[in-house]
Amino acid sequence: GTEKIAYKRVMLKISGEALMGDTSFGLHPPTVQRVAREVQSVHDMGVEICMVIGGGNIFRGLQGSAQGMERTTADYMGMLATVMNALAMQSALEELGIHTRVISAITMNEVAEPYIRRRAVRHLEKKRVCIFAAGTGNPYFTTDTAATLRASEMNCEAIFKGTKVDGVYDKDPAKHDDAVRYDNVSYDEVLQKHLGVMDASAIALARDNDLPIIVFSLDEPGGFKGILAGEGTYTIVK
Ligand code: UDP
């Protein structure tokens, strides 16, 4: 896409794996710092920023339950993993001088604020980055759904889904040379063709709330800011 996008408030969703760098588990601090600088460059434009970070670099509920753990317990462990990632990102952002709040869907007052919608909105108005942790607080959901839910509640104008590739393709571009990237694609087409942007509940929630999803590459330095300045390649789901 090339049209200039002028958003005042956005949700940035990244997976836990995006903080792993080239390692195979957990957090890679230089990568966390790099992502924090990408966030900083958008914050510097005056854009209000919400974030949701997944937990897959540490624990996924489905993995745990496949190994015999009770599903809901495994899902709570996954939610706790997202809190660790959120704290790591908070630390990196504050190192850059950006005021940040971690807001958890599971109450743990010693480490994060509880989720109180009006309070979160106030933080955004004061240009604090709000990192929403612990997913939706419910098992059987994903952090993609949490990002869509919080983006809706916070009246974000779009969800920015940072991935390893610069948009949505008709087939896996890592496996097929002739994969074609969409500039625009509808929610329904994403669902019908199983395009793997986000899970189906998240796509349906975004569709019902008219929230565009911008899929872009987080590996591209300056990519996040570039899109907000009207540059770069990405796919917009709307
Ligand atoms: N999770 C959950 N409810 C939520 C969000 C997350 O139970 O609302 C759990 C679920 O087990 C999931 C894990 O937290 O596997 C980590 O989140 P996710 O898989 O979305 O992380 P990502 O793939 O984005 O790193």
TrEMBL record:
It comes from the Bacteria. The keyword Transferase applies. It catalyses: UMP + ATP = UDP + ADP. UMP binds at residues 55, 75, 136-143. GO terms for molecular function: ATP binding; UMP kinase activity. Its main location: cytoplasm. Pathway: Pyrimidine metabolism; CTP biosynthesis via de novo pathway; UDP from UMP (UMPK route): step 1/1. Pfam families: AA_kinase (PF00696). Residues 8-217 form the Aspartate/glutamate/uridylate kinase domain. GO terms for biological process: 'de novo' CTP biosynthetic process; UDP biosynthetic process. Homohexamer. This is Uridylate kinase.
